[in-house]
């Protein structure tokens, strides 16, 4: 241990106190030993350091900070160095705001395009997600601040996220849902990692020794702080035993007392507590020293705004450009249509919500570009309500222009923490505006905002489509630089856009409204599925157009790398993202036809050629052998492909690889990839155990880990009435188009959250009493709540007296 001398001077109560927060955002100090308090702040898209009382949901205002493009956008840059630059700026702002830990980046795998939090995550592919996350982490920590990648792991839906059980086989878990974190941990060396709300195979991630100890610490070498997601602690004692360091938010001593009592009763060894204390001391002391050494940090707000714009520019993806409509010539007469041009969608909602230092809209910055703007029309209402007057004005304006710049996108309610999407469509009133405008002026360029894939049957009505994602505070001018040719489109999609929702391999299983979420599609997530079964999609993984063209040649394959020549054969400077895919035809282990194993973003002048080398690392050929319980390599003649995307393969070679052992043969769907409808028998065989019950027993009393939204079958009539009121409020907020995060959080929160999220106002004993009332025993429950309050008050009084004496 690094701080053994200091730990010997701590009382048991002080040790336990260090492993639970002081309040919503800070850790506990020990003033007599000069142990400082540390401040943790949301930060995937920019710092959200709240002013006044903290709440974690973004309900109270936060200090101004740069709002960067979301992770979903920056991943489209395929540029870890860009992520590192953003991370460094984020770390600098953390120092300026006296923040010790940035809670991000988010790198969960996009199992379904409907996850409401996909805008915070990088990709459907673990290799790309891991590489981008490692870049962010290195940047943040270059300033002495700790990064905290999240949410570890298999966190794929917002519905019932605090109580959902991800039922997933070990191979899929290791290859798809943990490889991203493995790369982030090994290459980024984060000082912290955040455990997720959900269970994995009936064990909460925060108290899973296989996840937190065997894999994270022993195999990957992680030696930092494991932080719970806010309210994600189920059993604090079991969390500490498994390897979880810090429970957040604080519970005003309730959890500390439980842990100290467990140590005294011999339930948990004090040596395990000391290990966790050593981790929190190292974090607090190291980051506090860095903060003091930095002194008062004076930020260059304009430089950070410019970097945010650069990130947005290099992350935008040109998806269609018929007739080379873009870039527009100087002096082009344009009609600007769409509410998003005036009120931009530049970030998602929830705990990542940032109060930007400044914010651009297209209407504000258009005068900086060489275009003749003939006018602006809103065209539609954001809440998907028909408005004939707005539509007619847009159509009339379109007739006056050479080109229409039509700003469309997903509304705020579509993408928010705590809420999953129910479909992949953009609002119908926006589509109608596109159709009507295109009927009078076919030269339409759509500039699309949104943090995830959408269905796009309307693509036939526009000549160009530029996808900006959620581009942060400087995204408006970034897109216009591409539109006018001042910048080159260099983004490539980090996720597949299917033709329709039902084409997604998880569509039949996601989101699970029940207690379990079954990952029946196995390894076949995103492009791994579409490419293997040859299913057409709207836009493939890795796709994106340029204003120039590229040629690939001279492939050379060796045991350690692939090398080839890339040439810009066009007339403009541009960047190509060359992608390395590996596959093993005839694999006995069962593999997707190709998997991303490397990439390089290369900028080239017209006519310029460069030799590109992409290493073959330790992940190039491996698979996880569940029989052996470890990573193996299957012998065979591997196909190595270099492509402009996962479908457009430009060069291919082979490499004979000598492996070890004979793989176990998986059930038939997992050999062919035909996983859209997997039987119970095949999934059970893949899991190697019986399936857990998918639904809760509505005849049984509600439990502490059942969600408040399940009170529709509570024994108490009062609880059922409360559920109806809560449900109506939830539906009303969804219909309004603006998510009520407080209502959404409460609805999906388990009863234990009452004792974990109220900063000590309600102890776990009191929360258990509330549940007794919900289950129909009102008087008994009231008595337990009273006893819990009295016990907490007595304990607090005794602690205060001890501290004074």
Q: What would the principal axes of the Cα set say about the shape?
A: globular
The strand line-up of the biggest sheet is: 9-14-13-12-10-11
Low-confidence stretches: none
Number of strands: 26
The helix-and-strand class reads alpha/beta
Q: What's the mean pLDDT score?
A: 95
Major β-sheet annotation: 6 strands, mixed
The CATH superfamily of the largest domain bears the name Glycoside hydrolase, family 3, N-terminal domain
Cα Rg: 27 Å
CATH class of the largest domain: Alpha Beta
Outline the structure in words:
The chain is an alpha/beta fold and 805 residues long. The chain has 4 domains: 4-51 and 60-294, Glycoside hydrolase, family 3, N-terminal domain (TIM Barrel), CATH 3.20.20; 308-498, Glycoside hydrolase family 3 C-terminal domain (Rossmann fold); 548-664, Immunoglobulins (Immunoglobulin-like); 708-804, no CATH class. 33% of the residues lie in helices and 17% in strands. It has 24 helices and 26 strands. The protein has a 6-stranded mixed beta sheet with strand order 9-14-13-12-10-11, sandwiched between helices. Strand 23 (622-625) and strand 24 (630-633) form a beta hairpin. Helix 2 crosses helix 10 (254-264), helix 2 (12-18) crosses helix 11 (270-294) and helix 4 runs parallel beside helix 5 (126-141). The longest helix has 27 residues, at 778-804. The radius of gyration is 27 Å and the shape is globular. It starts with a helix and ends with a helix.
């Amino acid at each position: 241990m690094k701080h053994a001398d200091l730990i010997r001077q701590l009382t048991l109560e002080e040790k336990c106190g260090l492993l639970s927060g002081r309040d919503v955002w800070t850790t506990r100090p020990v003033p007599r030993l000069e142990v400082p308090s540390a401040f943790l702040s949301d930060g995937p898209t920019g710092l959200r350091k709240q002013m006044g009382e903290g709440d974690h949901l973004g309900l109270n205002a936060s200090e101004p900070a740069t709002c960067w493009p979301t992770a979903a956008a920056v991943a489209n840059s395929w540029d870890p160095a860009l992520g590192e630059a953003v991370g460094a700026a984020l770390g600098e702002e953390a120092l300026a705001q006296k923040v010790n830990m940035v809670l991000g980046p988010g790198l969960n795998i996009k199992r379904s395009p409907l996850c409401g939090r996909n805008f915070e995550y990088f990709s459907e592919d673990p290799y790309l997600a891991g590489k981008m996350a490692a870049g962010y982490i290195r940047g943040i920590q270059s300033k002495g601040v700790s990064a905290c990648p999240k949410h570890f792991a298999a966190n794929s839906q917002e519905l019932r996220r605090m109580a959902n059980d991800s039922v997933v086989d070990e191979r899929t878990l290791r290859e798809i849902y943990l490889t991203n974190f493995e790369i982030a941990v090994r290459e980024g060396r984060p000082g912290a990692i955040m455990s997720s709300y959900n269970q994995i195979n009936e064990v909460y991630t925060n108290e899973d020794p296989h996840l937190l100890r065997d894999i994270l610490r022993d195999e990957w070498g992680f030696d930092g702080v494991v932080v719970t997601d806010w309210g994600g602690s189920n059993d604090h004692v079991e969390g500490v035993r498994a390897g979880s360091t810090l429970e957040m938010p604080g519970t005003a001593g309730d959890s500390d007392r439980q842990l100290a009592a467990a140590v005294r009763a011999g339930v948990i060894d004090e040596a395990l507590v000391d290990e966790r204390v050593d981790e929190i001391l190292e974090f607090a002391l190291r980051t506090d020293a860095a903060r003091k050494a930095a002194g008062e940090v004076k930020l260059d707000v304009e430089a950070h705004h410019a970097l945010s714009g650069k990130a947005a520019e290099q992350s935008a993806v040109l998806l269609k450009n018929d007739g080379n409509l873009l870039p527009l010539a100087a002096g082009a007469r344009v009609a600007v249509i769409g509410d998003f041009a005036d009120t931009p969608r530049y970030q998602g909602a929830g705990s990542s919500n940032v109060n930007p230092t400044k914010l651009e809209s297209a209407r504000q910055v258009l005068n900086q570009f060489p275009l003749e703007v003939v006018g602006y029309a809103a065209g539609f209402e954001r809440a998907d309500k028909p408005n004939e007057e707005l539509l007619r004005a847009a159509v009339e304006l379109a007739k006056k222009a050479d080109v229409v710049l039509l700003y469309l996108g997903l509304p705020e309610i579509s993408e928010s923490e705590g809420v999953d999407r129910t479909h992949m469509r953009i609002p119908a009133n926006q589509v109608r505006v596109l159709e009507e405008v295109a009927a009078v002026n076919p030269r339409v360029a759509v500039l699309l905002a949104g943090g995830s894939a959408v269905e796009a049957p309307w693509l036939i009505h526009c000549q160009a489509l530029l996808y900006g994602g959620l581009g942060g505070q400087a995204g408006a001018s970034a897109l216009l630089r591409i539109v006018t040719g001042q910048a080159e489109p260099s983004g490539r999609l980090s996720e597949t856009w299917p033709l329709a929702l039902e084409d997604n391999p998880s569509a039949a299983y996601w989101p699970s409204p029940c207690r379990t979420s079954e990952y029946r599609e196995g390894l076949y997530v995103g492009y791994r599925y579409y490419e293997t079964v040859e299913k057409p999609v709207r836009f493939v993984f890795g796709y994106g157009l340029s204003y120039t063209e590229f040629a690939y040649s001279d492939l050379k394959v060796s045991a350690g790398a692939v090398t080839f020549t890339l040439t810009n054969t066009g007339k403009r400077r541009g960047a190509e993202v060359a992608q390395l895919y590996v596959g093993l035809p005839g694999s006995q282990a069962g593999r997707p036809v190709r998997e991303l194993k490397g990439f390089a973003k290369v900028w080239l002048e017209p006519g310029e050629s460069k030799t590109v080398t992409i290493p073959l690392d330790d992940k190039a050929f491996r698979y996880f052998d569940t029989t052996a319980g470890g990573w193996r390599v299957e012998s065979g003649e591997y196909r190595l492909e270099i492509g402009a995307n996962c479908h457009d393969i430009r060069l291919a070679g082979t490499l004979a690889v000598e492996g070890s052992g004979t793989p176990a043969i998986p059930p038939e769907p997992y050999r062919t990839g035909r996983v859209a409808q997997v039987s119970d028998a095949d999934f059970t065989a893949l899991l190697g155990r019986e399936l857990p019950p998918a639904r809760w027993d509505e005849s049984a009393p509600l439990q502490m880990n059942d969600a408040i939204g399940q009170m529709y079958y509570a024994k108490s009539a009062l609880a059922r009435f409360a559920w109806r009121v809560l449900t109506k409020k939830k539906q009303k907020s969804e219909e309004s188009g603006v998510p009520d995060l407080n209502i959404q959080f409460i609805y999906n929160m388990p009863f234990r959250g009452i004792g974990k999220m109220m900063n000590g106002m309600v102890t776990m004993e009191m929360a258990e009493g509330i549940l007794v009332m919900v289950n129909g025993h009102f008087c008994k429950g009231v008595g337990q709540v009273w006893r819990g309050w009295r016990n907490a008050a007595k304990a607090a009084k005794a602690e205060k007296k001890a501290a004074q004496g």
